[in-house]
Amino acid sequence: MKLKDIDREVNLLRQKYLNSPPPFNPFILGKKLGIDIFSFPFPDEISGLLVIMKGKPYIGVNSNQNDLRKRFTTAHEIGHFVLHKASFYLCGNKSEEKEEIEANYFASELLLPAELILREDSFIESRYEKFVSRFRAPIEIIKDRVKFLNIDYSEPISGE
To answer: pLDDT tens digit string along 64-95?
Structure first.
């Protein structure tokens, strides 16, 4: 799947279901899509899963993870639901499979919209906490997103 196709899917969902400014809440989006979301103490190597049973989608999120990670995992699993047609996805912390990469991209675009990230002028290490609180996403996801979008976050903020 092409990144522009994933961007289009995310934008359609945001317009239809999340008519508010970021940070977007993946739990609300899941409910609006008819997905039941539950927490479960999975082993550490499992972040979450998507299961479709008898036509009904369920997302399980590892209850041992912090709230920011749970948000990303939920957005990631919604990505599988929207983009892929299998009835079961088990997501670990580090997967390089094509569908996992697509779901990660989906979640990143949902939680950290490129158009908002590209408008920022303060992507330096010491300022990442600002973006954690603003976008409600884990710092490692924000760093990956900035790197993916080719933003030079080593440049100082204007006037500093």
So the answer is: 999 999 999 999 999 999 999 877 777 765 56
Q: Which of 126, 132, 158, 125 is nearest to 147 (CA)?
A: 125
Distance of CA 50 to the CA centre of its chain: 14
User: Residue 35 and residue 103: Cα distance in Å, rounded?
Assistant: 16
Confidence (pTM): 0.83
Q: Which residue has the tokens 């317009």?
A: 15
| Burial readout 57-82 (b: 16 or more C-beta within 10 A, e: otherwise) | bbbbbbeebeebbbbbbbbbbbbbbb
Give per-residue pLDDT as tens, 32-43. 999 999 999 999
Four-CA torsion 24, 27, 32, 35, nearest 10 degrees: 140
Q: How far is CA 153 from its chain centroid?
A: 21
Angle at 159 between CA 158 and CA 160, to 5 degrees: 95
Average predicted confidence (pLDDT) for the chain = 83
Tally of CB atoms within 10 A around 136: 18
Neighbours of 40 (CB within 10 A): 12
Q: Model confidence over 45-71: pLDDT tens digits?
A: 999 999 999 989 999 999 999 999 999
